[in-house]
Amino acid sequence: MLKRTTWITAMAVLVLAAACANQKGPATKAVADAETALAAFRDDAARLLPDDLSAVDSTLASLKDSLAKGDFKAVVAAAPDLSSRIAALRDATDAKKAEWEAANAAAREQWSVYAADLPKMVEAIQSRVDILGKARRLPRNVSQEAFDSAKSGLDWMTTTWAEANDAFNAGNAVDAAAKAQAVKDKGNEVLGLLGLAPAAS
Amino acid sequence: MASEEKPEVADPTKAAAENPYTQHYVVQKGDTLSKIAREYYGDAMLYPKIFEANRDILSDPNRIKPGQRLRIP
Predict the structure, then answer these.
(1) Do A124 and B21 touch (CB under 8 A)?
(2) What ipTM goes with this model?
(3) Whole-structure pTM value
(4) CA B70 and chain centroid, separation
(5) Would you put residue A168 in left (φ > 0), alpha (ψ -120 to 50) or beta?
């Protein structure tokens, strides 16, 4: 009786070991495939959907941990879901990228208008501020308070315009155009403070 | 018979290069650059700024003509 039980136990261990060995290959391949699939669009996902990428990365890390512990069954069981999530993230990233590229293209067109216009606006304001700064008194339509606000407004415009150029040169036309519009708005305000009629836009 | 003296105006071909944000003033009878400087800058002594900005149409700061369109930098 004892002999028979020992034999059954030994067989069971052998079957289990064989089953485990059978799962190791698919489990290893599943993790490698997931890493390869993710690597193909990781940079875009990190830029456009960082939270979603982080969630998928977390699941992948969990599977790698199971693989390292030899829990191949768990890896194989979880692999299809991870694969689906990676595919969904890839689709979402592609959609977001297309959306971003369309917005960036539109912003690049806007930028060309700003780039032609705003340096002239800044130059005209700078010129008037420099001249009024030398005046023994201000003109009747410009108070000291307005002049001081105009000077600080001009400083802000100069700084923000430089930031807009940096953003554009870094390839972010959307951010650049938003900053440029803010500079234009401030410029119109400053023109008013200095008694200069804003140019028709 | 002397022809009627016409005011000089900025060359229209330069219009494209003009700064659209620069203010302009059309000279009226009795105006001087000092008077215009006092009006726009609060200080008549700053008239050379207007003269320098309009050297293409002014050769003498004491000679401006009604109808001239001056840049006020």
Answers:
(1) yes
(2) 0.81
(3) 0.72
(4) 3
(5) alpha
- Chain B neighbors of A141, CB-CB under 8 A: none
The two counts, helices (H) then strands (E), for chain B are: 2, 2
pLDDT value at position B31?
98
> Three-state SS for A171?
coil
Q: How many residue pairs from chains A and B have C-beta atoms closer than 8 A?
A: 49
Quote the tokens at residue A152.
């600080």
CB contact (8 A) between residue A124 and residue B19: yes
CB of A116 less than 8 A from some CB of B? no
DSSP-assigned beta bridge partners for residue A62: none
**Best to test chain B binding among A117, A126, A131 (most B CBs inside 10 Å):** A131
DSSP code of residue B72: E
User: Which residues of chain A fall below pLDDT 70?
Assistant: 1-21, 198-201
Give the span between the Cα atoms of A4 and A6, in whole angstroms: 5
